[in-house]
Amino acid sequence: MNENWTLFKRNLRDFWQTFRRNKLGLLGGFLVLTAILAATFAPLLSPYKPTEVIRDANGRGLTFAPPSIHAPLGTDDAGRDIWSQLIYGARISLSVGFLAGFIAMFVGSLFGILAGYFGGRVDNLLMRVTDVLLVIPDLPLMLVLVATLRQMDLHISPLVVLIAVIGLLYWTSTARLIRSQVLTIKERQFVARSRAIGAGHGHIIRRHILPQIMPLIVANTVLIISTAILVESGLAFLGLGDPTQPSWGAMLNFAFDRSAVTNGAWWFYLPPGFAIVWVTLGCVLLGNVLEEMLNPRLTAHHLEGNQNMIAIKKQGDE
Amino acid sequence: MTGQPLLSVRQLTTEFQLADKQVARALEDVSFDVLPGQTIGLVGESGCGKTTTLMSIMRLLPASGRIVAGHVYFKGTDLFALSEREMRLHRWKDMSIVFQGAMNALNPVMKIDDQIREAILLHNLMPREAAEKRVGELLETVGIPHARRDQYPHQYSGGMRQRGMIAMALACSPDLLFADEPTTALDVMIQAQVLELLKQIQKNLGLAIVLVTHDLGVIAEMCDAVVVMYGGKVAEYGPAELVYNQPQHPYTQRLLESFPDLSRSIEPSAGSPRRDALSEGQDLATIPGTPPRLNALPPGCRFSPRCHKSMEICTRVGPDLVDMAAPDSGARHLAACHLLTGMEITDL
Question: What residue spans define the domains of chain A?
Fold first, then answer.
């Protein structure tokens, strides 16, 4: 156990050494990390409650007020602070994004591994289900699903509905990706060897297949999260979010509803849009860099080979 | 030949399903015995069914492969009658494999000692601490330094990987070891080391080895008995010295002629075909043509299209195995060739 821990620490350190040399990856990490920090420490970072109406000396609400000392990013039509909504909105957008992303990743990996590993009829069945989901246009399907689920009066929070719908629809590309990787891994001889030592399917998947595709899963999760955040914003903008909770999409929805654009209240719609770009860009950069770094074909022994070559060359030069 | 065989293969026939509903018969009527502590060699060209034989015995054929007929008895147990779950218990504990190409058979992202421990723990043979000790002993047996046990396969040299693979194969103290071309892709020095190791292990642990190889020199040096395979059938089967010195099947003869052998004495021995070839100052002989495609086997004897002694009957009827050993020798030396049956008839 202790040995594993030191190994883990060493791997982590090696990982960081490579990671910090990658500027785009660092930028992505910074963008995502700031968003997460903002969401975590929202009460400390926001001067008002997101639903609180800011009033002037006469007790009248400051509606459509441009950025000022009282409200750093101005106020909306009801006189609520945009900055505070933005910070609290990060909580909603990120939690929906992360949870939906994890669900999608879980379902996708499960489908991909089972289909790829067992092949034959299992593969056919799972992949046809995937195909069906793949050919239905996402957005209309989600609109219908979310709207229907709400109509059913199930007393579930609209956020949970959003998370479930996004999570259970966005795993298709992941499943196909994982499946193709599993297909190549299961033909490798060490899988045959582990069958020869008497291992069952569960053991082979756990010990031999999963560690090989884990990097792919990690990198893909980050990318899926960005998609999930975008989709959540889209649905919330269309009014399918939780109206009582200020997510970034919901803010855009309000801004659109209350004619912020025609009123010239740019501080109402630009910040949430910018925040969405901030997080999704961060996730995409981070995901791409992780994928590049964790790709088994681009790691350890190849680099080591290069270093050896360099060392040999240096010796030769001397 | 005394005692009950450890492994008996009887009329093993295996087919592979190809695309467009074609069937390739990779093995047909393959039979041989392995006695406890014996080394038996499986020789033949690529694609003649050597590896398929091993995989059929272990029931590890890929999804397209199917055992059509035959039986495999291990210590009297019919392996083909077992459920998959029961079969899993036999694998590695009773018989293990040293795979062709150790690099591919080792998981690149698992440390060597973890991979060796995996088999032990999988069969619940001993608690974790004991397994730890056992891994140390195994690696010592195959000569891998203690300091390198927790390294990854890519940090090992080719020979070390193969030795690691052998250590893994010994992990559960099997009675039978299949070595599937254990020396391919190794340089000559390392080949010798690996073979020496196998010999030593066999001497110390008394296990039986089925050695698959192209290398007839290895057979001569290590094996008690030889099975020569051609096109999925047994061409010749018998004690190593008989097969080597008095090959009966034209294929075995040509195979021996085409192989340079430095370990054999120079003195010409009458009747040895390869001596004739060399004494005439010829280059090493080659067998013209290629092994038959298993989905388009020639009618009659499978070797007939390439055989220098082919007769009319060979292209029509497949020959049966006949025992060519001297009646009082107590050994069995089987070969499948019409020339031999003809001889028998003339003898009568």
Answer: 35-44+91-250+277-317
In which band, very low, low, confident or very high, does the pLDDT at B282 lie, cut at 50, 70 and 90? low
Is the pLDDT confidence value at B253 over 50?
yes
List residues of chain B with CB under 8 Å from any CB of chain A.
58, 60, 63, 88-93, 96-97, 99, 101, 104-110, 118-119, 122-123, 152, 154, 168, 171-172
B89–A193 C-beta distance less than 8 A: no
Instruction: Give the end-to-end CA distance of chain B in Å, rounded to a whole number.
Output: 27
Shortest Cα distance, chain B CAs vs residue A20, angstroms: 24
Q: ipTM score of the complex?
A: 0.76
Percentage of chain A with pLDDT > 90? 31
Per-residue confidence (pLDDT) for residue A8, from 0 to 100: 73
Nearest Cβ partner for B99 among A193, A207, A300: A193
Q: Say if the Cβ atoms of B60 and A190 lie within 8 Å.
A: no
Q: Report phi then psi at B119, rounded to 5.
A: -65, -40
Domain A35-44+91-250+277-317 maps to which CATH number in 3.30.70.270, 3.40.228.10, 1.10.3720.10, 3.40.50.300? 1.10.3720.10
Q: Enumerate the residues of chain B whose CB falls inside 8 A of the CB of residue A194.
A: 107, 118
Taking the Cβ of residue A305 and every Cβ of chain B, the question of whether any pair is shorter than 8 Å is answered with: no
Reported confidence tier of residue B155, pLDDT bands at 50, 70, 90 = confident
Distance to chain A for B161, nearest Cα, Å = 13
Residue B5 Cα, gap to closest chain A Cα (Å): 22
The residue in chain B having the minimum alpha-carbon distance to the alpha carbon of residue A197 is B92
If one compares A71 and A296, the residue with the highest pLDDT of the two is A71
Predicted confidence (pLDDT) per residue in B190-244, tens digit: 888 888 999 988 888 889 999 998 888 888 888 999 999 998 899 999 998 888 8
| pLDDT bucket at A310, cuts 50 / 70 / 90 | low
What residue ranges do the domains of chain B occupy? Answer: 104-173, 250-347
Inspect the interface and report whether the beta carbons of A190 and B104 lie closer than 8 Å.
Answer: yes
Structure token pair of residue B109: 């992202």
